[in-house]
Amino acid sequence: MCISIVAERGVWGRDNGAELRRSLVVVSSDALWSTLTSVLQDNPGGEGIGVALSSAGPVRVCDVTVDQWCLRLLSVGLGNDSSPEAVGRALDGCFRSVGRGAAVFLLLLRGGRYAEEEEALTGVLRERFGPEVFRFLLVVSLERDTVVVVDVLDDGLLELLRLCDGRFCRVTGAPATRAELAALRAAVERTLEEHGAGGYSREMLGEAGRRNTEDTAVGLLTEKLLRAEELQEAFGETVRQREVERGRELEALKRRQEEERKSEAEERSRYQEKKKSLEEAVRSHAFMVQLEMNGATEDETRKTSVILVGLSGSGKTSAMNLILRRADQRYSPSRDPHPGPPEPRPATTTTRCLGKEAHHRGQRFLLVDTPELLDEDGAENLEVVKDCLALALPGPHVVLLVFQTGRFTRGEAQLLAQLPKTFGPRVLERSVVVFTRADDGQTSRSVERYVADDAPAALRETVRRCGSRYHGLNVGESRSALSFPQVKDLLAGVRRLVASHAGEPMASRRFSAEELGKRKERRRVEDGF
To answer: Which of 158, 315, 344, 380 is least buried, going by the fewest C-beta atoms within 10 A?
Structure first.
């Protein structure tokens, strides 16, 4: 690419006796510059056109003489990779070398094609010299040896011609070169007449430079503003990310704190349970020591009353009878090698509460057998409840929850749900679970396996809430050797549970002590107990 300057040093006319000089500044590529000089050189001398090529430093010169006037074309070669800034500086330097005289700009095209290269040069020209440059711009189409001559101009070129008031010339070469150069000369003259004889001036260039400087400053400020907005947006995004990160960290901290609080709560619960267990052990020990020191008495307050609760068929009556028979006996196989046939079992169902006493290791136990506490519709039998509580005075101390091994019915589930209402919300703290079995093969190990593996979840939960206090009783044969240690272990467990509460009975708030006492006396009279 190059920038070409055309300067006319001949005399085209006079203004008030002074010589008028015209300078034509041509902007083109290296290829178009070569085409233009070739067109001028190919014209024979008979046409009255003379062409001389020379150079002045970096400037390549082509002097063209037509009759009495002369055109001087000057060219400065630029590399293909020249930036717009470099092209603008070269164009500015060429214009300043014009000297005295009027200046007009020419833009060379090949065959009327307004290519990207020429469009880029036009952009540099406008940016460097301002929009005023289009008032002094002529468009010249070189159409020698062109493969295609454009008859219909594209939109970009039409817009350019609109800016420069339609100034458009063609140069095709001999034999029309002379006439075409004359047309070019006339177009230059009309341009100077319309827009000022001085042509494009240094003042215009200075004003364009000032505008460029201002535009550059505004552009820099705009760029800085955009950069500031980008930085602000980036900062805002960073702040948002940090807020999100802090939010996640806060959530993580909350989770850790919640886990720590949960762990502390579990630790406090374990501590409270351990403390409670130690306190119960201390009370139990104190109570047992007191029993040893004072010995058993016939006072009613020394009785340990136990209420047996369960559905019909659970074996609670058989369990009570077995306890009564084995409570104060010692079993020796050598003493009874032939136990004989089993004792008959009761065939009737318990229909009312019954209270009976048993003695074990010097301690009195009041056992209260009960019919079902709920009717067929699941409603509480209030009279039965009052009877069992009355017979258990001054207790009850312990509740035995009796279930048949391998059986857990819907009615038993309803019974468990009703217990807190019947005996108070803390009834399971005073309860022992008893599993009965009719055959003789029941062992403590089989009961443990049933509780651990085979019992329904609701039943296992009940055992857990009872402090894992459970015992097995084989009620199938009263003389079985297995029943002696079973009863002994059960009563020992009852003693430990009572001792853990310092011998205090369960508090009943549903009925007054006076009402229950009167009912107990009435039952004593009725039963002769």
So the answer is: 344
> Do the domain assignments include residue 208?
no
Task: Please report, in angstroms and rounded to a whole number, the separation of the first and last CA atoms in the chain.
Answer: 133
**Domain count within the chain:** 3
Query: What is the structure's pLDDT at 78?
Result: 65
Q: Is residue 206 part of a domain?
A: no
Is the omega angle on the peptide bond into residue 371 within 30 degrees of 0, that is, cis?
no
β-pairing verdict for 470-474 and 431-437? parallel
- Indicate the average pLDDT of the chain: 80
Name which of 3, 109, 8 is nearest 59 in CA terms. Answer: 3
At 113, give phi and psi (nearest 5°): -95, 125
List the domain range (segments joined by +) for residue 350: 296-527
- At position 524, the amino acid (one-letter code) is R
Kindly state the tokens that stand for 294. Answer: 């004072």
Q: Which pLDDT band holds residue 149 (cuts at 50, 70, 90)?
A: low
433 forms beta bridges with: 401, 470
For residue 75, the cross-strand partners are 4, 60
> pTM for the full model?
0.46
* 207: in domain: no
Place of tokens 């500031």: 228
| Same domain (yes/no): 232, 116 | no
